[in-house]
Amino acid sequence: MTLKLDNITLTYPDGDHTLTALDHVDLNVERGEFAAVVGPSGSGKSSLLAVAGTLLRPQSGSVVLGGVDVTDLSDGQRTLVRANKIGFVFQGVNLLGALTATDQLLASVHLSGGRPRARRHDAIALLTSLGLGARLDRRPHQLSGGERQRVGIARALINDPDILLVDEPTSALDHERGTQIVDLLAELTHDRGVATVMVTHDVSQLDRVDTIHEMSDGSVMIPASLVPSGRM
Q1: What's the mean pLDDT in 195-199?
Q2: Where are the domains of the chain?
Q3: pLDDT bracket for residue 223 (50, 70, 90)
């Protein structure tokens, strides 16, 4: 098991009350599995990603990555886990405006404690494999939306993570470019053997995923009506 959330509960203070964002949630994703989490705004999708990515500590339950329980690690240890074991693809991509596509990846290498100069060839090879070989020296404002999303995916993968967490990757793209990004995520998940969790509200882009989990009011279920044919 690469990613396992077991009986996760996450609450937030809400005035005089408590808001339950995650209500005894279980989620298991294996290596090479592309899982989608769908649901309306406010259903708990973003909170689930934050807990899976060790950004938030749940009130109860456990987060296990690669067989290691990371729930109660110190803040410093959790930072190291995120840098070396987890890749994040953000909804807004969040590329640094002053950096080229290649340097976006090398900055991620630096933050993980690696040696950027020694990894430049790897960064170029990864970007080229994602169809960005002619865009290596372009800054974000010189790239299309789909190209920026590909750079964001490459940045998430440069440190060879075990887990890939993807937040609404198609929200700023048209249907055709969105389909290309989801196809790319599926291919990378299966080829690289990462456990990928994609949060999305777009149920039209689920043909390539392996499992679908629906969220409602902080709970997770697997609805047969949404699972791709032949993948139950």
Answers
A1: 96
A2: 3-221
A3: low
